[in-house]
Each structure stands twice: as structure tokens, then as C-alpha cells.
Amino acid sequence: MVSSDVAGNPMPIVEFQTASGQRILINVRRDSFSVFVDETLTLNYDGEGRLYSAWIEGRNYRRGMDNRILEKQEGPRPGLAYRVRRELTPEEVRQFLAMAYARAVEYHAAINAPETRVLSASSPEEVQSARTVLERALAWNVARLERERTIFNIIYKPVSILPPDQYLALVLQATEGCSYNQCVFCGFYRDRKFHVKSLDEFRHHIRDVRAFFGGGIGLRKSIFLGDANALIIPQKQLVAFFDIINAEFAIQPPQCQGDALKEWQAQHPIHFQGIYSFIDAFSTRRKIARDFAELAARGLRRVYVGLESGDTDLLHFLGKPHTPEDVMRLVNDVKAGGVAVGVIILAGAGGARYAEQHVRHTVNLINALPLEREDMIYFSELVDYPRSEYSALLHEADIRPLTIGEIEHQITLMRAGFRFTNVDAAPKVSYYDLREFIY
Fold first, then answer.
1. Predicted confidence (pLDDT) per residue in 88-107, tens digit
2. Mean pLDDT of all residues in 289-313
């Protein structure tokens, strides 16, 4: 039995069987390892030995670097909108981690027991490697994982959200907070002032991030430049930030493919696919195609634009400072600079009053954008937070929020209306649930 690493190289899975018949499979990868037990449990660890996710009795668990844990399971109906999600309480976190640690101790003893048989392995070295990596997990007991929270909160401001394809990114916070921070539906950055780090602060931040992740840094596949709108930094300083990143990390060359790419990856076992970041649509007033080309040469691969809607009235209602024309100019400049885009649509925004015009004008704008295979379109359901300004506005205007079914129908209508110039090279369309994220 084999799996493959990111470069497509086969990675054997070592299978053990205990005297009681229990099957324990250990998959050792270059950057992480996993333990599978009787098809009922999976524990996933980074290269340092930290537990980062698990699957137990039909429920998925994701542990954040600040030691929070998100639990997910399928809901009463199929689909992401009905999935049950909740963050475990601190006491539940301790109980869960204690259970996972006890399992690791049990499995470590089992695979080292003399009566345990090796059912599949290509070499004795692979068997020893499987036994060795599980020892790393034993170094991370509950108390040590709890201490991670304190360290994380010294190095980072809260990592509030990332695009779904960047959940395994290495976040580097060149900025803290949001430069605008007035969108009525967003509460992510209300707890902090916008701050741009100095170059020295950024270098120290990278040093601390490296030390914190340690051997687990290899699990991170890309670099995400945070926080909410880091690309608003003046171009000269922004280029300097990118130069620092390139001096500290190996960024995969964009045109390197095939055997040349495999050779480059072999020479750079710890490397990143590129640099990614959010950008606000009003940044078109500060950045042009030449600026994006300058950043692309330094590793910028995709930027994520909060379009929210193609309807001008709805954008105004949401407190957004941009217009659909701003989005058009920005996307054209980004693409002309050789950078891909991820366009985010806020499904359900504006409730029943704005629903029809939200669909019509958003579809028209998407169809006018030069989107291609490397680009993405995300539908993000508007998730209201307690005591939000958005809720107050809906109440004052007597606007009925859309139901889950109506939001799904709205997404279906938009998708049905999209018309891409080249169907064979159309952008990927996906779902983006804020409740699914934990860093």
C-alpha cells in the first residue's frame, strides 16, 4: 500500500497487526505522518509531532496552532450548508487531547510489542521509521500543547480567516488588522488597529514563526501574507517585504515543470508554492499592472478579492467602499501583471430585498471579468455575528434574511448564469464557509 507526496513520489504505508487482530497503519511523509486504526480512527501529525487533525467515529477534528479545536460532522441533509460545526470548550479540548495522547501511547506500545506482526513494508528501514515518528507524538502531551496557545498569541495577532485553498499556508503578518475595517457584516478585525510592520519587525516576526513551527513548517504548502489587506502597503515597502520572504524561504519558480520541477523540489525539501494574499477592490487606486508584475516576479501567485456583489446599491448597503467598476479595473490589472485572482461572492447578502439584483448584477460582472483556469470563484455564505451592524441594518430596513434553502438557490442561479469565454479553461467555482476555518 502506498500514498504519494506533493511531488508525486510514492510514500509507503507500513501496516502492523497486533495479537488481538487490530490493524495499525502508519503513513510517513516527508512533512507529516498519519496513524490509521481499523478504519475507525485517523490521527494526523505535522513533522514536529503535533496533532493537527483527526477523524474519529465519523467526526472530523481540526486543531489550530493556538490549540483550539473545531469539530465537524455531517448534518441532517447533505451539503456544506447543513454541516454541524462547533468549537470545543477549553475543557473539551483538554479531554480530547488527553484521549488522543493516550491512543498514541497505546499504538506506540502495540507496534513495538514482540507479538505484533508487520503485514506490509518495503524494508526494515520503513518499519523503523514508522516506529520512530510515533515517538515524536509522545513528546506533545496536553500541557505542552496548551503552552502553544500562549506562544502563538505572542507571535501572531489572531489569524481570523484564510481562503479555503490556503488553510495550510504559512501565515506571515506583514500587517495587523484591516486598513478599512468598516464593512457592516465583518467582525474579524474589530479588536485591533491597523498596523504595518517595519522591515525589522517583519524579520523578527519571521524568525519567531520559524522557531514556533519548527519541523512542522514543512506541512505548510504556501505563504499567505496577512492580515486583511496587506497588499495596500506602499509598493516600495511591499517589494522589500517580498524580498525578505524570498531571502528566508524557497519559493517554487512559476515556470518550472516536469523533471526540472522534481529536481528543484529535491534540492529544496522545505519550499512553498508561492505567496498569496487578500486585496480590497479599492486598491485599484493604489496598484497598477506594473506593480503586480513586480510582485509576481517575487512569488505572488494569487490575490483574493472580496467582490461581495456586482450590485452597486448592495455594496453601499454593506458598507463597501468600492464599485463594480473598481473590481473590473483591479482584476484586469492583476491579470495583466501575471497574477491569478480569487473572487469572493457573498451569498445571501442583503436578504430578500436585494436578492434578485444581487444575482443579476453579480452574474453580469463575473461574466465580464477575464477569468481563466488558474483563477477561482468562491461563494461565501453571509454568516452574521452577534450584535453586528448588519443585523441592525436589516432590522431597521425591515429586510428578511434569506433561509439556507434560498441562499443555496441563489448560488445555483448565479452558477447557472456564468458564461466563460473558454469552457475548457474556466475558473474553479467552490464554496467558502467561514465556520470551517481554524488556523
1. 999 999 999 999 999 999 99
2. 97
- CA–CA dist 51, 43 (Å, integer): 7
Contacts of 39 (CB under 8 A, 6+ apart): none
* Beta-bridge mates of residue 226: 173
Predicted TM-score of the model (pTM)? 0.92
Distance between CA atoms of residues 429 and 422, nearest Å: 15
Rounded distance between C-alpha atoms, residue 304 and residue 167, angstroms: 14
Residue with cell 496548551: 146
Q: Which CATH code for domain 156-436?
A: 3.80.30.20
Spatial separation of the C-alpha atoms in residues 9 and 29, rounded to whole Å: 10
If you count them, how many residues does the chain have?
439
Residue identified by cell 431597521 is: 396
- Cell numbers found for residue 307: 467582490
Strand (E) or helix (H) holding 394? helix 389-396
Handedness of CA 244, 249, 250, 255 (dihedral sign): negative
Other beta carbons within 10 Å of 258: 7
The CATH 3.80.30.20 domain(s) of the chain lie at 156-436
The position carrying cell 434578485 is 356
Buried (b) or exposed (e) across 137-175, using 16+ Cβ within 10 A? beebebeebeebbeebeebbbebbbbbebbeebbbbbbb
SS (H, E, C) 128-189: HHHHHHHHHHCCCCHHHHHHHHHHHHHHCCCCCCCCHHHCCEEEEECEECCCCCCCCCCCCC
When pLDDT is averaged across residues 408-420 and rounded to a whole number, the result is 96
Tell me the C-alpha distance between 12 and 15, whole Å: 9
- C-alpha cell of residue 10: 510514492
Count other C-beta atoms under 10 Å from residue 93's C-beta.
Answer: 20
